[in-house]
Design a protein that fits this description.
single chain; 224 residues; alpha+beta; four-stranded antiparallel sheet; 33% helix; binds inosine-5'-diphosphate; binds magnesium ion
């Protein structure tokens, strides 16, 4: 419990409102502590009976504006996700986008496009020695694909987990491939497998101008 006297100079005060549906914390900087313990006690949205705690300044949680500011200053990890022609034909675009949206990732770019065989050969260049390469290019270039860039902490590896294993038989239920497909040659979705390949693929599929810089209104509800 906070005592009004003898407060060290390097503390912040957190007022925790008990009467709200869920606890809401308000942070006061040192200069405002007097407002709490003078006669001008203004607890604002915490309503009645706040319990006050003290903690060291450096240990206090970041404010919402700090989180929002950091998110604009430091670019987060990005991954390239492509819904392949079978996913587009089967009407799965919405459900797949929904999984990335509801996870909390931010959509940075998206287009429905049919870039042709040469582009697909460049995209899958690392697999050119594989026996299935020609079939893979036939498949990938057989119709429009939905190319996207998603952004967020650990977007690459999390994206891979959300996709599931390459072979749908090995993909866990709950993953995109585990839920929506059966054959490896019709596994509906591509996702970058490393940050380096993600950056390479994003550069292959999108111009800098196509990558939208915007602040998601949920940032402070997704990141602490
Ligand atoms: P990934 O898509 O999970 O990253 P990769 O090994 O990079 O898997 O293969 C790229 C794509 O090539 C696969 O998603 C799949 O469409 C196709 N592919 C991979 N292995 C086979 C195979 O054994 N037979 C046919 N197609 C394959
Ligand atoms: Mg791959």
């Amino acid at each position: 419990m906070l005592e009004p006297m003898g407060l060290p100079k390097d503390v912040s005060v957190i007022a925790w409102g008990l009467s709200l549906e869920r606890p809401t914390m308000i942070y006061y900087n040192v200069d405002n502590i007097r407002d709490l313990f003078g006669h001008k006690v203004n607890i604002g949205t915490t309503k009645k009976n706040p319990i006050c705690y003290i903690q060291n300044e450096e240990k206090t949680a970041k404010s919402a504006s700090d989180v929002a500011q950091e998110s604009t200053q430091k670019p987060k990890e990005r991954t390239f996700i492509m819904i392949k022609p079978d996913g587009v034909q089967r009407g799965l675009i919405g459900q797949i986008i929904s999984r990335f949206e509801t996870k909390g990732f931010k959509l940075v770019a998206m287009k429905l496009t049919e870039p042709g065989r040469a582009h697909m050969e460049a995209h899958y260049a690392d697999l050119s020695s594989k026996g299935f390469f020609a079939g893979l290019i036939d498949y990938a270039a057989s119709g429009p694909v939905c190319a996207m860039v998603w952004e967020g902490d650990n977007a690459v590896l999390t994206g891979r987990k959300m996709l599931g294993a390459t072979k749908p038989f090995d993909s866990e239920p709950g993953t995109i491939r585990g839920d929506f497909c059966i054959h490896v040659g019709r596994n509906i979705i591509h996702g970058s497998d490393a940050v380096e390949s993600a950056n390479h693929e994003i550069g292959l599929w999108f111009t800098e101008a196509e990558l939208c810089a915007w602040n998601h209104h949920s940032t402070t509800w997704v990141y602490e």
